[in-house]
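Q: How would the structure tokens look for this protein?
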Amino acid sequence: MSKYTVYTLRTLAAASSAASAVAASPAVLHLAGAVAGSLGLVCSSAITLAGWHIASTETNTDKRLIAGAVALAFAGAMAAGIHASGDLQTAQDATGAAQQADRLYQQQESSRMAALSAVTAELRATQKSKYPGEYAALQKQVDKLSTPSPRQATASQVTQGLADTGGVYRWAMAGMYEVFAPVLLLLAGMFSRRGHAGHATETTGHAHGHDVDTLPATQNLKASAGAGSTLATLPATLATDVDTDENDADTEGETYRYADPWKTALAGIRGRRVDTTEAGNVTRQAVMDYANCNKQDAVYAMGVSVQEGHLEKSGEGRNARYTYPEQALRAVK
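A: Here is the predicted structure in token form.
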């Protein structure tokens, strides 16, 4: 999978999270106000997105569970806001329609009462004995106008009836908003792990295969002859260093360099020729100095070395520390 696929999925997840916030905004802004409501929506959306991202990319199970639980809680709150916003919008639409119906009803009643007054006055002025037919027609009109027009449901009645309808449907629609972001991020995390695993496997294959074969002949001979039962599982270059304490190139004050600088850095780490600090840490700058490579090559070589087991990593981000494994150190001694 292309790295752009991962970026696209994560962008779509962010857009889905933003759409959820927009859908929940009517109820939140109505309850909390414009400033507080907007801030709450932005924070909730960001926490939800970050939680799902950590849950989809973190390798530590405990961190994944905690991040997933936090994201699920905020997603539930967002779904409740979307549901409430749907109820609020429906109620507002229905209230507006009912209020319009009330106004029309009042206009009809005003017209009916005015017509009734006029017909009643005309009926009183008409003598029944002289104009019996006209009198009967006027009396019929009075009887008809005396009956009120059928009244539609008022605004309060319509709004009250909405509370018992469409609840399950609205919850389902609200939940759909919160499904897309975690699904997209989980897919992005899966594709990202596949890409890193494939790249690391290819790199490891080169490091253990072609790269070792291209080492100086003296190193290959020492590697094949010096790997005893205790170090059978160690890489060939590491076994060479254990057997001789130092290889021929280092004895002469030189470092064997590959065409790719990161391969030189990887070989130096595998052979424990990269200097450590007083605390026993292998730093990125030390790798860069040893292999004469740039920052990206040093970081990549250290990452591959961690996957291969030649370095142990503790901490994350700026607090990350890299050391040589203790088991191999005991073997060296």
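The chain has two domains: 3-194, 209-332.

Residues 200-253, 327-333 have pLDDT under 50 and may be disordered.

Upvote if useful.
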